[in-house]
Amino acid sequence: MLRRPDLLLWLLATIVLSRLITMIMVPMIDTTEPRYAEIARIMAESGDWITPWFDYGVPFWGKPPLSFWLEALSFRLFGVTEFAARLPSWLAHLASLGLIYTLVRNISGHRQALIAALVFSSMTLAFVMSGAVLTDPFLALGTTLSLVSILLALRHPGSHWRWWFFIGLSIGLLAKGPLALVLTGGPLFFWVLWRRQWRDLSTIPWIRGILLTSFLTLPWYIAAELKTPGFIDYFIIGEHFLRFIDPGWNGDLYGNAHERAFGTIWIYWIEATFPWGIIAVVAIFWRWFSGRSSGSPRTWSLSDEQRLMLLAVIFPSLFFTFSGNILATYQLPALAPLAMLIAILIFHSGTVSRINRGGAIISMVFIPLILIFTGFYTQIYPEKLKTEKMLVAYYEKHKSEDSYPLIYIGKPPFSARYYSKGRVKQMELPEVESLIRSKLHPMYFIAIPNTRLNAGMPSLPGLTTIVLKNRRFTLLQIKPAENRIAIYEIK
């Protein structure tokens, strides 16, 4: 099957399109996806395309706006749905696949290009991120565009690819910030040292290209600082310096630091590239040991292009080795060059002919099948997820015109804010008790944490009914009544 390009194309289309199923089926699960989706929803609602807003009146300085721009535009075109929020990431994934295919086809031909696209699309992190409301798919698109462009520009001097390198930098800067310069420039710097040759890069229009990148990116950075002063200090110093050197950085305005042991990024590499990272390592060791057993050690002789791809694979792990404030998504820019190397070196070398071809095909469909199964599981057992979709939907269906907005005891999860379109209220029990006693509304819906249910319910005045329960909250329907507390649980 791996020798049939038409079948490879059908397999690739099946894997890519299968992600659409889970994009529709799986609700927004706290915390990250609904947080970013809510920021994009507020942008679409307000029409403010300069400052992303964490909440009404609270600017979000944590990330540049590219992903929010695209998601807000998608909301305006298709409505506020999970599919609309996730569609831009899926399109970014398609663009990355197109870049992978274009470069590998130039190097090794159509069949290897399809295999590279298949390997990339079936890696765990790539498949998950292809339909996730995050900024990382756009950073990866930018770094992949720059990598592909520099290699094609060197292959075809004077071509338009020399300009696309700088457009890739611009995408990365508007998606994630200066990290894009590090993840693109780092491998390029070490590549020059490895080759001991930099003259080829003189064909790249560096000065005009940097001006182009500045023209595409600086206006937003300047406008963002002028509109909400303090953005540059927080984003550049806080997010790109303090977060990197301090695993327990407590300056995060929008969440908590992700403190991990040094070197954890390498474990994330295995998880992110599964199953292909392990297959690649096994194939390398198999080739080396089989050569030793025959008395003539065999090694791959890397071309200049493959050296740059290899550096792009390992540089994110090297860069984040001594940073404890990390996430697995930081490995996403490494996946495209790894997929290209696997297609060019392992499949092309004939190694896979000694590996079970059926095993290679199973590897390509394993992760998509698992994620599709997960999507169906979430439809059957939605109460097991950390999402407020069902609870908010119940409120919207059963509220009356005079009902008070949905109240959360304590801080509402991001999914509650997203699904309610920002209309949920945050209160504590004493405030709720006073509100109910005022009898200003005929009915109230209260979401109370399950951990506080037994202690909190007896203090609520009125006819109280448990109407819904999920993993974290219990939804109460309360009708004000003097000195009456009646509790009914809906089975």
What does this entry look like structurally?
The chain folds into two domains: 5-380, no CATH class; 385-489. Helix 1 (5-25) runs parallel beside helix 5 (110-121), helix 5 (110-121) packs across helix 15 and helix 7 packs across helix 15. Helix content is 62%, strand content 8%. It is built from 21 helices and eight strands. The protein has a six-stranded mixed beta sheet. Strands 1-2 form a two-stranded antiparallel sheet. With 491 residues, the chain is an alpha/beta fold.
Lateral strand order in the biggest sheet: 4-3-5-7-6-8
**How many separate structural domains?**
2
Please state the structural category: alpha/beta
* Mean pLDDT rating: 89
**In DSSP terms, counting alpha (H) and pi (I) runs of 4 or more, how many helices?**
21
From the N-terminal CA to the C-terminal CA, the straight-line distance is: 52 Å
- Shape designation: globular
Considering DSSP H and I runs of 4 or more, what fraction of the residues is helical? 55-70%
